[in-house]
Amino acid sequence: MEQHFRSYVGGQWVDGSGSHTDENPADLATPVGRYGVLDAAATAQAVDAAAAALPAWSLSNPQQRADILDFVGSEILARKEELGRLLAREEGKTLAESIGEATRAGQIFRFFAGEALRIPGEKLASTRPGVEIEITREPVGTVGIIAPWNFPLAIPAWKIAPALAYGNTVVFKPAEIVPGCAWALAEILSRAGLPDGVFNMVLGSGRTVGQALVSHPKLDALTFTGSVPTGRALLKQAAERALKVQMEMGGKNPLVVLADADLDTAVECAVNGAFFSTGQRCTASSRLIVESAVHDAFVERMQARLAQLKVGDPLDPSVHIGPVASGAQLETDLSYIRAGHEDGGELLAGGARVDCATEGHFLAPTLFAAQPSHRIAREEIFGPVAAVLRADDYEHALALANDTPFGLCAGICTTSLRHASHFRRHAQAGMVMVNLPTAGVDPHVPFGGRKASSYGPREQGRYAVEFYTTVKTAYIAP
Ligand code: UN1
């Protein structure tokens, strides 16, 4: 029987209206399931439920919260193959990548189980004799979570887990094309021992459900990962009502390859960073900035390596690159390939759709030699399309790396300690990778960027406490 995915509001499963297809991007003839969507009124009920559950939950025993998060993380880890399979069918990344993502999601829940018992505070002396000062952290309140489709388990995990650990209540709105993964997470959370209303999950469009969430007066904070235009629009609304926000938006991440790099390492970093997960990562290496002396050798090796990669069914273990996640994203990718040609780029690999046994959104990994002014070298594409840019020397490469409105991640491949250290200091990005792909981050350390990529406090690790709590300064006289 086909699965039907529902929303979860105030401890109840809610159908919503309509029956929309949850597409399998690798096999359009065999959908993953169907789902109903909520309207604005039902979304408002979810925020009301979260607000009603807040007073008790915000004062709950941290051990209770730790036990609940540990239950969720442990179940995700125990079922990682099955959840990974659902993820691969719904989003299209390969089964190995999907199981890796499920593992990451489980680890994140378990990390924050521990953090629930480690909420930091400080005690300081006052400038007034006899007075003591105590600085503590309290939950920020009801938290709205708007998540993207490209990591449909891990990104919700790294927002939901800290929100609950620090005593907040949650309304989680997943991206529309991944209702199955959202439902699977909600289903586990619904059995974890949370009081009704502490966690809610609302399916539907950004225009209706997202909008109703953000404009609800009882929402205290909003965390968003997605595109720059959506993030900026949400930011404006949030500013009008002084909502606390955290935004992770786009990237146009550079990977610099210097003449002294180990070329095998550089090619592996570039292939992984630019094309794995079908290039659909905000941390993807979409600008490969290569020092002139090794440019042609690097391009040749990339071409040889890309020719070995198999595009196709993400459940087939011999496949390296799954389909593009949706028809809309495929259209965007193809329009950027046209822009690459129009702007005068030289196609080095790929550039077209791939025929497979099933009808799906398959696209060949595409590499262009481009100029820094070309659209494919400036705008985020969010697909398996990367640009190679030629640099005269290290200084030129660094200038090109920083010549972007974005600042999420920056990578360098080099065997020179001097250049690696200089790059680490001068790359204008929230994360720097040396001899590693720009994408693929650890679950327990801060994640986030600068410039147009991010706004507000960092996510993940102990730094997540900044966003999910508010500080109280108490003065105590005897
Ligand atoms: C990673 O590169 O491991 O949307 C994580 C994204 C990021 C997550 C990337 N927020 O691609």
TrEMBL record:
Gene3D superfamilies: Aldehyde Dehydrogenase, Chain A, domain 1, Aldehyde Dehydrogenase, Chain A, domain 2. CDD domains: ALDH_KGSADH-YcbD. One of its GO terms (molecular function) is oxidoreductase activity, acting on the aldehyde or oxo group of donors, NAD or NADP as acceptor. Pfam families: Aldedh (PF00171). The keyword Ribosomal protein does not apply. The keyword Oxidoreductase applies. The active site is at E248. Residues 13-473 form the Aldehyde dehydrogenase domain. Keywords: Oxidoreductase. PANTHER family: ALDEHYDE DEHYDROGENASE-RELATED (PTHR11699). Belongs to the aldehyde dehydrogenase family. This is Aldehyde dehydrogenase family protein. It comes from Luteimonas wenzhouensis.
